[in-house]
């Protein structure tokens, strides 16, 4: 099965352990591009969308970054569960999962680049890197964009820049985003202020699966809103600076929690570990929220560092509903999924010893 081949290959941006990827899990650059002389996907008839797909798929597969393309297909060739797996892998948007004939997706083996064809625009080029590496992700997307531009004619206005279906993307068509893990700011109830401050300077804060989704597992996606009036370099510089500041606030919040409320931290992490290691049924929402606390405990040295792989690579994505169903090769009811998830987590957590709270013990009575 195609999706199985994709999942068997290692996902480059999910590499755990690097200091740089503890708070910032991943960086993503997406470019919106359209072909001139074809209507935008939302206006196009099915035959027009199919024509665009017929041009776009081979062009995308021919990119140098796609030397090892593992997935390149029309959306109607995927089952609903497979499409949902692609959403859970962050490779396509939820909207794209709802599309069928006339839309497509192309992904490379290491999942550093994925192209959605006929999503809101003809092309959504997405590049991913682990940690805070917006510039490195930009280089991947920029190269793909240049190569496509040599083969196809993009809709471009010398005055406005790239033309896109939604006016908010006109200009560079670039959205830079970082997925950040902010349990310290959530536990210390400062997250609301941070979100407001980030919004005030024109950046969006979205949930785990992008626009219109919840911030499960204390994971947030911070991205630029403006695509007009700023160059690509300026957008990246500004984003890098702001994400750096958010990371600093998260580190300060964690430090403050450890100094002032160590018992709260140890309690939350230990309870999370206790439930994950012993539950017999658990929802994906509860699992993500508890895994976030165990991840926080790892950053604070309460678990051996080698266990990080278990949380980041095994548990965070593989416990999501579609991944569980794909592993069983059948549709499962909510009850069956919750039971399977709990069994999977108990097995994984056998390799994670209980939190080592000794180093926090001095002020523990506080
Ligand atoms: N930093 C990131 N790391 C991993 N995945 C990300 C990151 N940022 C966004 N994504 C994923 O990209 C997909 C699309 O996100 P989103 O809905 O924010 O759309 P967009 O293409 O950036 O913007 P829009 O359609 O609103 O113009 C989602 O699957 C989301 O999880």
From TrEMBL:
GO terms for biological process: phosphocreatine biosynthetic process. The gene is mcsB. One of its GO terms (cellular component) is extracellular space. The keyword Transport does not apply. GO terms for molecular function: ATP binding; creatine kinase activity; protein arginine kinase activity. Keywords: ATP-binding, Kinase, Nucleotide-binding, Transferase. The keyword Nucleotide-binding applies. Its EC number is 2.7.14.1. It comes from Methylacidimicrobium cyclopophantes. InterPro entries: Arg_Kinase, ATP-guanido_PTrfase, ATP-guanido_PTrfase_AS, ATP-guanido_PTrfase_cat, Gln_synth/guanido_kin_cat_dom. ATP binds at residues 26-30, 90, 124, 175-179, 206-211. Residues 23-253 form the Phosphagen kinase C-terminal domain. Belongs to the ATP:guanido phosphotransferase family. This is Protein-arginine kinase. It is an enzyme of class 2 (transferase).
